[in-house]
Design brief:
- With about 280 residues, this protein is mainly beta.
- It has a single domain, classed as Porin, CATH 2.40.160.
- About 5% of the residues lie in helices and about 65% in strands.
- The protein is built from one helix and 19 strands.
- It has a 19-stranded mixed beta barrel.
- Pfam families: Porin_3 (PF01459).
- Belongs to the eukaryotic mitochondrial porin family.
Length: about 280
């Protein structure tokens, strides 16, 4: 098994607990792909509480023979962005990534340049944030692994004041059936322990425990599961130690049409108007 990117550490559990719960909003996503490989994505997301609508138009072109991917996006807040990725052009396993955005009205801009190196037992990435509010910042992360064990960390170094702004550490063990891990973030003040278990082809289960020593001595715990009814339908449920219950239902209505329904319910205040529901509708050709 190849080691994951540091940002994907614990991804299986994060997807189990966070993905496919379109709570508190109504979302529409439309994906189309042209014959020459250009993918267009249009998304719209309405917040059920505020009524605000966030929308975005994205185009993505991929040339697999050259390892080139170009992505452009423009959203309703008038932020224009672009990203260029070049895979394996310099050497096998090396990827170059440059992306940035600009707000034409106020001139706000963002730009990052990154390089990553990936092999079966190591995945490392370094990037420079040129327009960070604190000055140019270098971000570096790396994960190494062997026989299912992985160890990784990341650090952010500010060039202007020559200080380390962030450092985190992660360690875990994974097989094709289950994953366990421990993640220390926020300069070792926030700790997350988790496990994920693919019980069989139909059932997935997992849980995480979080302790933020800077805020409280209490530990928060959340557990969730997914049950696949058939090739087109699955249901999900999760609950935490304060009684928040999440429910999700996703079904492929037909090839290229997917509907997801979700809800979050406070089981300690069932008679009050504090619950949230939402839906997501995805069209893709």
């Amino acid at each position: 098994m190849s080691v994951p990117h540091y940002g994907d550490f614990g991804k299986s559990l994060n997807d189990l607990l966070n993905k496919d719960y379109p709570v508190g909003s109504a979302k529409l996503e439309v994906n189309t792909t042209t014959s020459n490989g250009i993918k267009f994505t249009v998304t719209g997301n309405k917040d059920n509480k505020t009524g605000n609508i966030v929308s975005e138009l994205k185009t993505k072109y991929t040339d697999k023979s050259r390892g080139l991917t170009v992505t452009e996006h423009w959203n309703a807040t008038n932020v224009i962005g672009a990203q260029v990725e070049l895979q394996d052009a310099i050497a096998a396993g090396v990827k170059l990534d440059v992306h940035g955005s600009i707000h034409p009205s106020n001139g706000a801009k963002n730009a990052k340049a990154a390089i990553e190196f990936k092999q079966p037992s190591i995945f490392t990435r370094s990037s420079v944030d040129l327009f960070s509010k604190n000055g140019p910042t270098i971000h570096t992360d790396a994960i190494v692994g062997s026989d299912g064990f992985v160890l990784g960390g990341d650090v952010a170094y500010n060039v202007n004041d020559a200080t380390i702004h962030r450092y985190n550490l992660a360690a875990g063990y994974s097989t094709s059936e289950y994953q366990v891990g421990l993640h220390a973030t926020a300069k070792f003040s926030h700790f997350t322990a988790f496990y994920f278990h693919k019980v069989n082809k139909q059932v997935e289960a997992g849980a995480k425990a979080i302790w933020n020593k800077a805020a409280s001595d209490a530990v928060s715990i959340e557990v969730g599961s997914k049950y696949t009814l058939d090739n087109q339908t699955f249901v999900k449920a999760k609950i935490d130690n304060v009684g928040r219950l999440g429910l999700g239902y996703t079904q492929v209505l037909r090839p290229g049409v997917k509907l997801a329904l979700g809800g979050s319910f406070d089981t300690t205040r069932l008679h009050e108007n504090v619950h949230r529901v939402g839906l997501s509708f995805v069209l893709e050709n």
